[in-house]
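Lab meeting, item 3. Inverse folding demo.
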């Protein structure tokens, strides 16, 4: 499932320089922070229900008989 989460990106605005950073969902769940090229470290908070994430995964990879367990 970790590879599937890497396809989902969240966008975060850097509070220091205003740049938009694309962060893989897997990084949000595991590392809880993202770095910007300006040197800022941005703390990430994920309040997305896991059900919403699962729906995104299912939309990208619809369950089929061969991959449905």
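The presenter then showed the designed sequence:
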């Amino acid at each position: 499932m970790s590879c599937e989460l890497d396809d989902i990106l969240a966008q975060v605005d850097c509070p220091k320089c205003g740049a938009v950073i694309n962060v893989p969902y897997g990084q949000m769940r595991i590392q809880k922070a993202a770095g910007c090229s300006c040197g800022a470290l941005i703390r990430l908070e994920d309040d997305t229900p896991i059900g919403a994430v699962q729906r995104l995964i299912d939309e990208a990879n619809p369950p089929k008989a061969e991959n449905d367990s």
